[in-house]
Amino acid sequence: MRTFGTNEFLFIVYALQWTITLTAIAFVGGGVVGICLALLRISSRRLLRVITSGYMQFVQGLPLLILMFVCYYAPSLFGLEVSAIAAAAIALTINSSAFLGAIWESALRAIPKAQWESADALAMTPYKTLRFVIAPQAIRLALPSTVGFLVQVIKQTSIASIIGFVEITRAGQLVSNATFEPLKTFLAVAALYFALCFPLTQISLWLERRAARRGSRA
Amino acid sequence: MNYTFQFGPLVAYLPQLLNGLWLTLVLSFLGIFGGFMIGVACAVASTLPSRLPRFLVRCYVEVMRNTPLLVQIFVIFFGLPNIGIRMSPMNSVLIALMLNNGGYIAEIVRGGIQSTHRSQFEAAESLGLSYFQTLRFVILPPALEKVFSPVVSQCVLLMLSTSLVSAIGVEDLTGAAMIASSETFRTMEVYLVIAAIYVSLNFVFRALLNAAGLIIFTRSRRTLLRRT
Known about the structure:
Chain A has helices spanning 6-41, 46-60, 64-73, 84-110, 113-121, 126-156, 168-179, 182-217. By secondary structure, chain A is an all-alpha fold. The relative contact order of chain B is 0.15.
């Protein structure tokens, strides 16, 4: 019987690349869709706003696990086989898009209306207004929560282990099955997550404090 | 797409799904309630003048917030038997859910307590209130009222994450769905139904918790009534 030694630990560390890959795909994909959602939410068309809001409410009310199952099994209705990583990436992208969309929408709404109006008075096109006037301010507002949400995404990638994708939680299960030392194994897995997430949490906290200081000075 | 949806075979699984729904509700309720108790206790402990409780609460909160719930469940269910603590799947997930929710709520409530002005403490002290009276009547009510809406969001997220308990074989709504789908091969139908149930539960929970808030906090009830 194997014991939990350096090799087993390295096996889990090696799987870390998949956790990070999945996080990156989900965060970038979710970010791109999230920006579109946030912009649709502040559009002047009522219908667009309602549909976007409906999508966001729906996704936010759905457990990620169920979303992952649906993404895993739905393509087979069309005769397509998707790999576990593709299903996990799609589900995580959909999930993060709704949450990031909500974060950024509130940042966009927090910009005073006068900023839009004065940009309009300077004859800036809507795109230019967004790019040079609104976005720089909104990004600063949204940054702490966005980094905070990145931590959520990292933790949520663990759910991909349930559909069989080998990231660090699944690697931990494999090691624990081989060594019969689940306590050490899962504590090691937890420690790796902690090592990834804790620095990001601290950065998010620091950004928040800095924003609060700047806000009080202004 | 030449797939015909057949919801018929699911009817036979209605009792299992209802049992699963009930278990999801029980887990959510206990998780929310237990987590709230732990959270408020930790938040109060972290405002004590002495350093040790503050440090311990800090460690607890950071560990809970920076590791996934799924791994926490695995540590408690698979890991603890290694050191002789053996629990049923149900008890393991209950403890995991409460501890996890407690960590988040502690952080939220601590923010509420710290935003209370120092003069409130001083005024309570000059009225001769004891420490617990100050907490109970002066500090906690406005602090909890202030952070009520983030607490509600956190509790709804907890309700959604109870679906993870199916990973160790607890037959909650998701667990029952997994069984039904593997026995009928009507996978899509099962998960569509389950998805609809979770989304409605989300709205129901939000509404119920907000209603509870209006009943508990007289001040926000009064502002609401005045506005309408």
